[in-house]
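Dissemination and training. As part of the outreach component of the grant, students in the summer workshop were shown how a complex can be specified as a set of sequence lines and then modelled as a single object. The example used during the hands-on session is reproduced here so that future cohorts can follow it. Participants entered these lines:
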Amino acid sequence: MTLVLTSLIADGIRAEGTKHYPHECCGLLLGTLNGSQKRAEVLWPVENVWTDEIALTETDSDHSLRDRFYIPPKAYLLADRAARARNLELVGCYHSHPDDRAKLSERDRIGAAGAGGGPDFSFVVVSVRDSNPGEMTTALLSTDGQHWLLEELVIEE
Ligand SMILES: [Zn+2]
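and obtained this result:
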């Protein structure tokens, strides 16, 4: 699969990463899916409401908004409704990694497996160091939920 981001959307993700630094930002992507190409049309920021009550693993309680994010089910529902109203669909989500690589983590995989989203749902991550956004990557969750599959990210100028 390929995920196409307009430069406006890519810049929006980077700006969100900077705005929420040193916390993780998060949100959803509304767009179109045609064959093997997805295109994000609308950036849908969601407040990161992670707390250690949402912990999925025993070690989560040592963490904070600096390295965890949570998009509640209601946010998915609202975004899905907004997407349908525009003839779009939910094509993915994004979050930032403050002072870390733009690489989806094992913890991200566990969270994603719980959230679902389907085999075409993109997980975009942007690295933000000292408030400065850097590399951005995207991946799909394998159908068995056991590993990340990198997908191509194209940013339109
Ligand atoms: Zn992450």
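The chain has one domain: 2-146. Students were then asked to discuss how this feature might be tested experimentally.
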